[in-house]
Write a structure and sequence with these properties.
The chain has 256 residues and is mainly β. Helix content is 3%, strand content 46%. The chain is built from one helix and 24 strands. The two termini are 42 Å apart.
Amino acid sequence: MRLINGGTTERFHALFSPEAAGEGARVIVNIFRGQPRAFPYEIGMMERHPFGSQSFSPLSGRPFLVAVSPDEDGKPGEPQVFLAAPHQGVNYRCNTWHHPLMAIGAVSDFLVVDRDGPGKQSRGIRLRYPLRDSGASSMTGLTTHVLDTALGKPAQGLRIQLMRMNGEEAQLIKTVFTNDDGRVDGGPMLAADEFQVGQYELLFHAGDYLKGTGATLTDPPFLDVIPIRFGISDTTAHYHVPLLLSPYGYSTYRGS
């Protein structure tokens, strides 16, 4: 980083160098609008760009998934998947096997810098790798998973209370804490005879967790206890209720 414009601007210089090989090639700047992926999601193909790099910088303040593979004799190997925080970007060098853009949670915009010009822009190979957001195979019951999108990692040690609703009255079923993977130990939070049709509420004690991470918070914090109220209508199904959390925003959806 260096200061420019009379010390009023911080310049983070040369974060990456775009690549554009071949006669008549040029570097272009685009905006991609990604639709959120639905989980469970199967990584059905990987691609690479033989003549140019491709970078993605999020514009919507939302996390996204990055999947890359090593090259194994000209084909992609087993993918590795990473959660990118809302303030992180990624640059794929020439010939890096990667999955196309994976937005999660909501429609998201990205600033994309890549190559334009003669020659085939990309090469794709189809494959089959299942990707689940719950870390679980087919099951019934209720599970959750908390991701700290500001830090780009699972939220460890976050207290969660599970309530059964009777109108506006709430009955506490259990209190749990997330493990180092942002999940709850011991299997589903609701299973077997406890897993009944009805209205439920998860109370995520985000304020205490965020204080523990050293995040800069207002007093009182903007987010403290986050209630997610939802209904269970099918006791043969799996209900996964994740939370994507930052000090000033959160989102949830029904996973699998």
